[in-house]
């Protein structure tokens, strides 16, 4: 589904939750394109920042963490319906009032809907604030690196004559976090950040782009998990992800659905194969292949 049809649906979904046009704005790569910068995008994916005071359910974390509607709620049903009908990933990012109001917004119309998006310099500022958290254990260095690569792409897309301030802002962040961008993880250690307690044993299923659920119990393995996963968790008894940390949306999904997980396991999709029997040791954050 194209943007002309998707954005009115986003606006309609949020309106049904009592969130009006002034209470949310687009941020991230799509906002950069709306601002006139040609940058690689992450498929059918949009990040929406929301004034947390307007969100109709309680969240524990704001500003840098995606929110998923509560399990079993009508909000979740509506959210999943949007994802399955449009094919788009919709990441909801609650912001506290202070940060939300500090962001300068631009306004455009898409498909008849009024859409706010972050001013390009505030987009960069939000990106830096996210990196400062993603580079720590809470959200994982893999996400931090992806955010920084996104800034590199923005910097390359910016015209030195038309947008010198954009180049300057990107360079400052890239210089500050150069060590994160250049870090090389241990390629063969199946260890990461555990979510849950105890241990679980099961057979590996490498997640593909067309994954729509498992026919029998599996431990699902992927480079990263999108919010689309919540529609297909039946028979998933464990999760292994090459990205993520304690406050990533992978962790939120694992905790909400009580699924044991080990996140930020570098090389998992390379070292594991379909059918491998593995043990997730959540005390040690370790994945062990059984012979």
Query: Ranges with pLDDT <50 over ≥5 residues?
Result: none
- Structurally, the number of domains stands at 3
| Helical percentage | 25-40%
Helix count equals: 10
- CA-based shape: globular
What's the rounded overall pLDDT mean? 88
Secondary-structure content class = alpha/beta
Element-level helix/strand string: HEHEHEHEEHHHHEEEEHEHEE
Sequence of strands across the biggest β-sheet: 6-10-9-8-7-11-12
The tally of strands reads 12
C-alpha-based Rg, rounded: 19 Å
| Beta fraction | 15-25%
Most strands sheet: 7 strands, mixed
What distinguishing features does this structure have?
single chain; 291 residues; alpha/beta; Glucose Oxidase, domain 1; 3 domains; seven-stranded mixed beta sheet; three-stranded mixed beta sheet; 12 strands; globular
Summarize the structure in words.
- The chain is α/β, with parallel strands linked by helices.
- The protein is built from ten helices and twelve strands.
- The strands form three sheets. A seven-stranded mixed beta sheet has the order 6-10-9-8-7-11-12, covered by helices on one side. It has a three-stranded mixed beta sheet with strand order 1-2-3. A two-stranded antiparallel sheet has the order 4-5.
- It folds into three domains: 1-118; 121-183, no CATH class; 193-289, 3-Layer(bba) Sandwich (Glucose Oxidase, domain 1).
- It is globular, with a radius of gyration of 19 Å.
- It has helices at residues 3-16, 29-34, 74-86, 97-102, 120-134, 141-157, 164-176, 178-182, 249-256, 268-271, and strands spanning 24-27, 45-51, 89-95, 105-110, 113-118, 193-195, 199-206, 218-222, 236-241, 261-263, 277-281, 286-289.
- The mean pLDDT is 88.
């Amino acid at each position: 589904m194209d943007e002309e049809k998707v954005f009115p649906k986003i606006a309609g979904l949020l309106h049904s939750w009592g969130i009006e046009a002034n209470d949310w704005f687009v941020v991230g790569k799509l906002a950069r394109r709306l601002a006139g910068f040609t940058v690689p995008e992450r498929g059918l994916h949009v990040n929406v920042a929301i004034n947390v005071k307007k969100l109709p359910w309680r969240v524990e974390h704001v500003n840098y963490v995606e929110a998923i509607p509560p399990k079993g709620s009508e909000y979740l049903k509506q959210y999943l319906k949007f994802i399955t009908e449009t094919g788009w990933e919709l990441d909801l990012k609650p912001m506290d009032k202070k940060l939300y109001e500090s962001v300068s917004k631009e306004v455009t119309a898409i498909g008849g809907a009024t859409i706010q998006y972050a001013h390009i310099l505030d987009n960069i500022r939000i990106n830096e604030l996210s990196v400062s958290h993603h580079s720590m254990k809470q959200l994982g260095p893999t996400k931090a690196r992806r955010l920084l690569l996104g800034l590199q792409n923005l910097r390359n897309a910016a015209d030195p004559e038309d947008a010198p301030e954009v180049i300057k802002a990107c360079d400052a962040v890239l210089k500050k976090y150069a060590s994160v961008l250049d870090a090389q993880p241990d390629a063969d250690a199946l260890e990461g950040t555990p979510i849950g307690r105890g241990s679980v044993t099961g057979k590996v299923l490498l997640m593909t782009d067309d994954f729509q659920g498992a026919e029998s119990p599996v431990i699902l393995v992927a480079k990263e998990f999108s919010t689309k996963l919540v529609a297909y968790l039946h028979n998933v008894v464990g999760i292994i992800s090459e990205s993520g940390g304690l406050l990533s949306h992978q962790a939120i999904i694992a905790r909400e659905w009580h699924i044991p997980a080990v996140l930020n396991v570098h090389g998992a999709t390379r070292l594991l194969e379909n059918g491998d029997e593995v043990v997730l040791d959540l005390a040690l954050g370790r994945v062990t292949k059984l012979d």
